Amino acid sequence: MKAKIIVFSQQGSTRAIAEDIASGIRMAGNDCELADLTDTDPSHPGVCDLMAIGCPVFYFKEPFNVADFMEALPQGDGKHAFVFVTHGATPAGTLASMWERLANKGYQVLGAFRSYADSHQIPIYPSPTHTHGHPDEQEHSEAIAFGQKMAEISRQVNAGETDLIPEPIIAPEGWWTERAVELSQEVLLEMMPKFAINLDRCTQCLDCETACPVDGIAIVEAPPVSRSLA
């Protein structure tokens, strides 16, 4: 079996978990490619039997570039997939949302995994944060075991054991889920500092567009685009 893990990671924690999951898949006797989401064409994500997408949680949801990527994927036609996230306080409904996006594209989603990670990318949090030092040794071990489990379930489902296909994750109830709905991009744009491109000074060198981790800047558009929030 050939697996491919597509990961978006800003600080390295999500990629570390992706590497653990990939190790588990390889330990189960399979090939596994690890690719950066920002370097992957969603219309041609690559040939594989098992695909995974992982990302950090931004404002109780998947980053907009990850959501855009999943929406641009071709139809999965029953291909096996799974999702994973890293988070600070809570993943809220992120895993359920990502699961649903892949299912709506025709993928057969076999599981989901989450791990704590340092929340130091949030400027209003004190440092060190409550999740400083995560993912820890236990979470790394759990991620490896999860990779092995996903590979084995995929093999068994292909062999006809369809009773192993899990029911879709339901978004948990609670203030965080309600908050995720409330914190639309329009609301966040009102709350956060405004970002704008100074057209008088911009030389169109494209350095900012290249450096933006969530593909949120498009200088040559008319007018230029600056998506400042996840």
Describe the structure.
This protein is 33% helix and 17% strand. By secondary structure, it is an alpha/beta fold. It has a five-stranded parallel β-sheet with strand order 2-1-3-4-5, with helices on both faces. Helix 1 (13-27) crosses helix 4 (137-158). 36% of the residues are buried.
In CATH, the topology of the largest domain is named: Rossmann fold
Average pLDDT over all residues: 86
Largest sheet: 5 strands, parallel
Structural class: alpha/beta
Number of helices: 7
CATH top level of the largest domain is: Alpha Beta
Percent range for helical residues?
25-40%
Q: What percentage of the residues does DSSP assign to strands (E)? A: 15-25%
| Separation, N- and C-terminal Cα atoms | 34 Å
Q: Name the CATH homologous superfamily of the largest domain.
A: Flavodoxin domain
Strand line-up across the major sheet = 2-1-3-4-5
Keywords for this entry:
globular; 7 helices; 5-stranded parallel beta sheet; alpha/beta; 33% helix; 230 residues; two-stranded antiparallel sheet; Rossmann fold
Topology, element by element:
Layout: E1 2-7, H1 13-27, E2 31-36, E3 50-56, H2 64-71, E4 80-87, H3 94-104, E5 108-116, H4 137-158, H5 175-182, H6 185-191, H7 207-211, E6 217-218, E7 225-226
Parallel strand pairs: 1-2, 1-3, 3-4, 4-5
Antiparallel strand pairs: 6-7
Helix pairs in contact: 1-4
